[in-house]
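Ticket #4471: structure output looks truncated?

Reporter: J.K.
Steps to reproduce: submitted the chain below (297 residues) through the standard prediction queue, then opened the result file.
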Amino acid sequence: MELRTLRYFLAVAREENMTEAANVLHVTQPTLSRQIADLEQELGCTLFIRTNRSTTLTEDGMRLRQRSEEILALVEQTEDEVGAGAELTGNIRIGAGESFAMQLVTDAFAELHAVHPRITCEFSTGNADAIEERLERGLIDFAVVLDPFNVDKYEHLELPATERVGLILRRDNPLAGRKAIVPDDLRGMDLLASSRTTHQTYDLPTWSGGALTPDDYTIVGRFDMIGNAERLVRSGVANAVSIEGVTAPDLAFVPFDPPIMTGAHLIWKKFRLLTKTSEAFLDEIRSLIEEGSTARP
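Returned output as attached by the reporter:
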């Protein structure tokens, strides 16, 4: 199985049309069709469902698409790591959830890019579970995660960023004018919560000191991106448990009391040889931290 063939396969998967994919690849349609047929014969399965109008992936094709994207991403990363000259080049791949802690990370990239303009960045957004999975699979180089998170199995750097946890509400909600949300305020309330499973950030019964049980409120939905949850807040379906720094201007944020504060870490895989570009990126972040830069909402 050649890398060129995988690139041909991904082009067809993206375009969902053999002729359009051939145009993108600058090859003839019969050549592309023959390459795909040879790949299917080599793997012993059908990768596409072909009709007069479209070419869509089979279940086996979907699996190969995921693996092909991983393989080609690792190839590109290897090319960046080997044979780099004095001028830093390459792509820094960073995964993160929605957090103001990313401000320090983007500041570090901006400083590095100003000196080495051939460096690029690629950001992936998702909750902690999805980001950690991408880090484990080698699809990103660094991840920004919010506490609580077990950073011991990773190399990590604590970021000087803390954010309050509370409720995101409509501004016409009677609680929007309050200075804080106390446990009794949540009784009978419909809530939206993070879809994190491996490291749950907000344990409301523990926060309330046992005053609340899961029966005292209703989790009507879960979200990985707060922007989606905010749409439901605006519609009046529920209020969202989230951090302060990501609240949209047209909505209100009211912190919890007792306070819940969450910190952030930059993590990367242990025992992995970093590229010169990644090392320079880490040096830039450390330098900003030493200079006293902080990320605040």
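Triage note (M.O.): checked the attachment and the full token line is present. The radius of gyration is 24 Å.
Status: closed, working as intended.
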